[in-house]
Amino acid sequence: MTSKDNMRTAAEVLVDQLIVHGVRHAFCVPGESYLAVLDAFHDRDLAITVCRHEGGAATMAEAVGKATGRPGICFVTRGPGATNASLGVHIASQDSSPMIMFVGQVARHMRDREAFQELDYRAVFGSMTKWTTEIDDPARVPEIVSRAFYVATNGRPGPVVVALPEDMLRERVAVADALPFQTIDTAPGRAEMDELAALLAKAERPIFLIGGSRWTEQGCAAMARFAEKFAMPVATTFRRTHLFHALHPNYAGDLGIGPNPKLLARVKASDLVVLVGGRLSEMQSQGYTLIDIPTPQMTFVHIHPDVARPRVPAPSRHQRDAGRFRGRGGSARAARESGLARRREGRP
Length: 348
What we know:
The protein is an alpha/beta fold. It has helices at 10-20, 35-40, 54-68, 80-95, 121-125, 141-153, 166-170, 190-202, 217-229, 261-268, 318-324, 333-344; strands at 8-9, 25-28, 47-50, 72-76, 99-105, 131-134, 159-165, 172-173, 206-210, 234-237, 251-255, 272-276, 299-303. It has two domains: 6-173, Thiamin diphosphate (ThDP)-binding fold, Pyr/PP domains (Rossmann fold); 190-344, 3-Layer(aba) Sandwich (Rossmann fold). A six-stranded parallel sheet has the order 3-2-4-5-7-6, with helices on both faces. Strands 11-10-9-12-13 form a five-stranded parallel sheet, with helices on both faces. A two-stranded antiparallel ribbon has the order 1-8.
């Protein structure tokens, strides 16, 4: 691609990359710092929702990422537009939702001169994103956009911020499109699953806590079958009550804001706690009172595709793990079934 016929503006290359990676809907608040992208949206196979406030645009993109497992996309203008959008970026970070926010930036020759509404986005968003970057070279648009999709979706999903200098967006370049991104799944090996099976076989008062992102209907159904098969009580964590039906006989309650004191006592009395997805944060740990850090009194297993404190070091895409588990119920299962029956009848 070297002829002038193949020349595109960097903004056109950017929009083409979104289409290559399967994006069909984006949210924005228009701004003069990325007018070239707004022009490139014209007559393209993309639905654009124009929002009244950048916080709304970012939150809508976060919701798309949470619901689909694919990055939600939003565009906002520089300075206060970007900081308004930090609301949605922070939610995406704490809820492990994949999203990519593109932010207009001052022209490259104005950088570090305190230009109108100039911000150092790496400094502003660095603590709440998986990656914050800026595209200085139009020829690198396909590379950086592709990396943004991979970073946002793999491992623990989360937000990425990409800054777009307005003069860079207008430059014309001949460059090939990137290949469509693919989500790379991680899963525990047989040795880790055998170790978990052995722990479960010995446990008399285990409990599963489920949370995090990238769950599907099939994954939730597999978790319910797993709970039934092994007589496991299951509690949901903060903002994840939809992952397990509240009327299911194995449902233990919601470990969010103001949980049932009996549930807190049940977790503290457990000899095995398995956290599937999510983080052991303030809400899940009830102010870090349920599980002693860094040396829990009970056996603690954290199944999560990111840095964790696992008893079984098994990073995983957790919505598939329950379906892959081929463990043994063990002699402790009868005690667990008896305990579930007592709780259903309201007895301690």
